[in-house]
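Propose amino acids for all 412 sites.
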């Protein structure tokens, strides 16, 4: 038999498709209301099957059996292998679509600007605030950006925002994930900077804790923020894994307003703004916006961006989310790979517009796994503008999403 380069390349294609399928399953499963113990088993299966499949495929299909690498015939494949490799081919097609989408995003992003500054907290405090949290060894991975947070300013143009409310500012923070890595020094130093902003409104969109005992970190973090229109919050799935009622109570005792499953009316410049919260699919229920007139400006805090379509169907103007962390690891030319969403990496992080809703998905401040490659954590100050379009300016601009898809319009 003679070596077949074409067959070898096709087997590599099937390996890529296999990986794409497993990643797709893991992403979608993590977007559902499933206990953490079950998700752990799914991840273990994923971690086993990804490295196991290539040697099995190359040995039983490439070398032995039909011996495709050695010039064997594809018609000699068993029915089982034919069926699974067909599925892998579909997975590879999905990978190509994702790759093209990421290239399109990069081209779009080149036409827009965002004002941000990066703070290297480890460098500024003079030591690495690694702590002793879960998987703290990951903090030592070369190139890890977990201590380099971007403080970002964006403008969001919204058609139904009353002209009198033009310039309303919202500090959006998400996904603190207190578990010990980074340690308390990191968060205290970060909030020293966040208190320098003077927003009209502060919101937190969930995943506060991975360790219940760390509620004592709250007074020097969330407890230090303030805003004239108030501070509003919801929780996320990692809080659901713990004692969510006590977490709600701990934040409320700091003066924050819990809007999970309900709405709250704000008065600003003689106009009413309705803000609601959703912790679905894990807790509570969606808020009821039907009690407010449709012409009133609506804001939804939703931990997961998977509620985007619900938000649009209820005439929400601005939706603020987190949960997906921007993917945490963004590969060159490929983009983010892991994103715990029923949409995969489509809404991993960034700004998306599908009328009538503009959605901003924060990359978050931390994560259960302290690893960030080409995906810095962020906190964002949004300045709301009345209207649908604006001339290009150097001061601030809306950032095109890190993972927006074709057909989803950047917020301009």
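Proposal:
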């Amino acid at each position: 038999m003679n070596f077949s380069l074409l067959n070898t390349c096709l087997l590599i294609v099937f390996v890529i498709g296999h990986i794409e399928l497993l990643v797709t399953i893991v992403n979608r499963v993590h977007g559902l209301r499933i206990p953490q113990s079950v998700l752990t088993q799914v991840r273990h299966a994923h971690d086993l099957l990804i490295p196991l499949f290539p040697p099995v495929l190359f040995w039983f299909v490439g070398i032995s059996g039909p011996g495709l690498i050695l010039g064997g015939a594809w018609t000699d494949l068993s029915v089982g292998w034919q069926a699974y490799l067909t599925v892998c081919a579909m997975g590879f097609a999905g990978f190509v679509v994702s790759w093209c989408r990421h290239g399109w995003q990069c081209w779009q992003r080149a036409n827009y600007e965002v004002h941000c500054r990066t703070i290297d907290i480890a460098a500024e405090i003079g030591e690495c605030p690694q702590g002793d949290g879960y998987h703290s060894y990951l903090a030592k991975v070369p190139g890890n950006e977990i201590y380099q947070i971007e403080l970002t300013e964006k403008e969001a143009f919204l058609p139904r925002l009353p002209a009198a409310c033009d310039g309303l500012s919202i500090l959006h923070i998400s996904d603190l994930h207190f578990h010990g890595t980074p340690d308390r020094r990191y968060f205290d130093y970060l909030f020293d900077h966040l208190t320098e902003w003077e927003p009209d409104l502060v919101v937190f969109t969930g995943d506060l804790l991975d360790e219940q005992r760390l509620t004592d970190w709250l007074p020097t973090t969330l407890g230090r923020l303030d805003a004239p229109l108030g501070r509003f919050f919801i929780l996320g799935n990692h809080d659901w894994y713990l004692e969510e009622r006590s977490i709600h109570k701990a934040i409320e005792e700091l003066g924050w307003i819990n809007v999970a499953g309900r709405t709250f009316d704000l008065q600003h410049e003689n106009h009413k703004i309705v803000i609601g919260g959703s912790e679905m699919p894990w807790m509570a229920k969606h808020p009821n916006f039907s009690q407010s007139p449709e012409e009133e400006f609506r804001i939804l805090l939703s931990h997961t961006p998977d509620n985007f379509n619900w938000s649009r169907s209820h005439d929400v103007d601005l939706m603020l989310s987190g949960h997906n962390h921007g993917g945490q690891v963004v590969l060159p030319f490929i983009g983010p790979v892991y994103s715990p969403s029923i949409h995969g990496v489509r809404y991993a992080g960034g700004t998306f517009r599908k009328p009538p809703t503009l959605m901003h998905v924060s990359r978050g401040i931390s994560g259960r796994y302290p690893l960030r490659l080409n995906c810095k954590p962020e906190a964002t100050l949004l300045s709301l503008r009345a209207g649908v379009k604006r001339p290009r300016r150097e001061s601030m601009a809306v950032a095109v999403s890190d993972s927006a898809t074709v057909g989803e319009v950047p917020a301009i």
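The first helix runs from residue 5 to 29. The chain is about 30% helix and 20% strand.
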